[in-house]
Amino acid sequence: MPACHGGPAEIPDGVKARLAAEYPLDQATGYAPGMVRGIVSIKRSL
Are the beta carbons of 11 and 29 closer than 8 angstroms? Predict the structure, then answer.
């Protein structure tokens, strides 16, 4: 499984510190493959 998936307990301390410094408001932990975090929709007329 890629290192980007898994629970907060599985994130190495160095990565946690970097995430907290670079993205202090981000809550993107605890997601698993197949889970949806967000959706983008783009529409244009034909």
Answer: yes
